Structures are given as structure tokens and as C-alpha cells.
Amino acid sequence: MGFGFSKDKRITESFEISKLFREGECFSCYGARLFLRSNGLEFNRVVFTLSRKYGTAVERNRSKRLSRECYRLIQNDLNQGFDFSLLVYPGNDTFLHRKNQIESLFSKAGILIKN
């Protein structure tokens, strides 16, 4: 499995995102939440969402880029067959902080494979 982040590994349909929020398990840490649901596929799919009134478009885009990159680096260390939604709140938008948030959330969810 490579380090790419192809479009088939993203959740794009609004009904799938709604179903994930409605039926998925929720795990929280300061500044972020992870919604998790089994998808029955051999790979994981993910969507990155931001809370309402996050800031300017530049801040929202930067936050999503940080989140995608942190997920891309950790995706090979996760159990497969899940849909994820990462909900991010405004705050400390640094790479190290976001990486720690994401690792903490996946660890709480019990799907992070320890190396």
C-alpha cells in the first residue's frame, strides 16, 4: 500500500457523510472529533470536516491540508474497512499538534496498529 491519497478513498456523497455522523461511533480530544463506522470494504475512506464559522477560507483550506497530510502519513498504520470523519475545531493549527490529535483519536478508537 502506497502513501497516496486517491479519490476512491474519500467520502464524497452527502448521504454517506450524514449516515456516518448519525450511526458512527464518536471519539473526542481537545480540538477534534473522530466519527468511525465500518464500511465493509477492504480499504478505509475518509472525509475532513470543519466546525461552523471556522474562519476565513484561507484558514479552512490550510486546516484541511494539514489534516489530510497527517492522515496520509498514518493511514498505513490503521486497520482497514472503516469510514472516518475527522471534525476539526478552530485553534492551534500546527502540523505537530494536528498529528498528535489524529494519532490520539485513532488510538482511542482502537484501530491504530502499534509498530
UniProtKB/TrEMBL annotation:
Single biological process term from Gene Ontology: tRNA 5'-leader removal
Gene Ontology molecular functions: 3'-tRNA processing endoribonuclease activity; ribonuclease P activity; tRNA binding
Any one GO cellular component localisation term in the record: ribonuclease P complex
Catalytic activity: Endonucleolytic cleavage of RNA, removing 5'-extranucleotides from tRNA precursor
Taxonomy, superkingdom: Bacteria
Matches recorded under InterPro entries: Ribosomal_Su5_D2-typ_SF, Ribsml_uS5_D2-typ_fold_subgr, RNase_P
NCBIfam families (UniProt xref): rnpA
Function noted in UniProt: RNaseP catalyzes the removal of the 5'-leader sequence from pre-tRNA to produce the mature 5'-terminus. It can also cleave other RNA substrates such as 4.5S RNA. The protein component plays an auxiliary but essential role in vivo by binding to the 5'-leader sequence and broadening the substrate specificity of the ribozyme.
Subunit structure: Consists of a catalytic RNA component (M1 or rnpB) and a protein subunit.
Similarity section: Belongs to the RnpA family.
HAMAP family the record matches: RNase_P (MF_00227)
Protein's UniProt name: Ribonuclease P protein component
Source species of the chain: Candidatus Gallitreponema excrementavium
